[in-house]
Amino acid sequence: MKNRFTKRVLLCVFSAVLSVHTVNASPVVSELFYDASGPDAGQVFVELFGMPGESLDGLVLEGINGTGGTVYTSLNLSGTIPADGVFVIGDDNGGSTSVPNADLIADIDYQNGPDSVVLRNGSTILDAVGYGSFTGGSIFAGEGAAAPDPVSGSSIARFNPLLDGGDNSLDFIVLDTPTPGSVPIVSSVPLPAGIWLFVSGLLPLLSSCFLRRGGYIPTVA
């Protein structure tokens, strides 16, 4: 049993080394929950993944309407990415949120789609996620093809937060139970930025060897 596990880890590390050149250098959307089983207020969240200590000041999250392609909501981000590399933005509901592990509370009640969420720095798009069924002239502002369209109460999450393959349909999976603040292979132990970069470069594919743990069950009013 031990020998099998060792081989599995070595294969994962070998694959990770081969793919190091595709590691993200900027924050990305790692999870998006936009359609609660009940009322959305205070339940919706966006999770970002990036380098610990990196400032989010000046970055903007935009909701792009699939009908016409206009920006229907915009959020100026602030704060820094915590030591675990995960930054959670929870929807504001009267000054509080029901989203656990929220680092920022703001009005982000995204539409159910087809729509897109875009993370930008000025005119530079850092990441873009399109979700829903884009048919009949709907405007897609994501990457590649749309992410899977989950049922109410489920979220979409980046399969490997260290990699961005440029195609939402391949990069994202559906999580039956949303997990704000929890992503694969991210340790809760603070790491210096330089070491974090080394580890992220060495182990990007190890997320395929482990399952997400923990869960978030949105409350239903």
Describe this structure in words.
The protein is α+β, with helices and mostly antiparallel strands and 221 residues long. The protein has one domain. 14% of the residues lie in helices and 25% in strands. It has three helices and ten strands, in the order H-E-E-E-E-E-E-E-E-E-H-E-H. The strands form two sheets. A six-stranded mixed sheet has the order 6-5-2-1-9-10. The protein has a four-stranded antiparallel sheet with strand order 4-3-7-8, with no helix packed on it. A hairpin with a 2-residue loop joins strand 7 and strand 8. The longest helix is centred in the first third of the chain and has 17 residues. The relative contact order is 0.21.
Keywords:
221 residues, four-stranded antiparallel beta sheet, disordered N terminus, 3 helices, alpha+beta
Briefly summarize what is shown.
The chain has 221 residues and is α+β, with helices and mostly antiparallel strands.
- Largest beta-sheet characterization: 6 strands, mixed
Task: State the low-pLDDT regions, or none.
Answer: 2-22, 185-192, 202-214
Strand coverage percent: 25-35%
Mean pLDDT: 81
CA-CA gap between termini:
47 Å
Mind sketching the topology for me?
Elements: H1 2-18, E1 28-33, E2 45-49, E3 59-65, E4 71-76, E5 86-91, E6 104-106, E7 115-121, E8 124-131, E9 155-158, H2 168-171, E10 172-175, H3 193-202
Parallel strand pairs: 5-6
Antiparallel strand pairs: 1-2, 1-9, 2-5, 3-4, 3-7, 7-8, 9-10
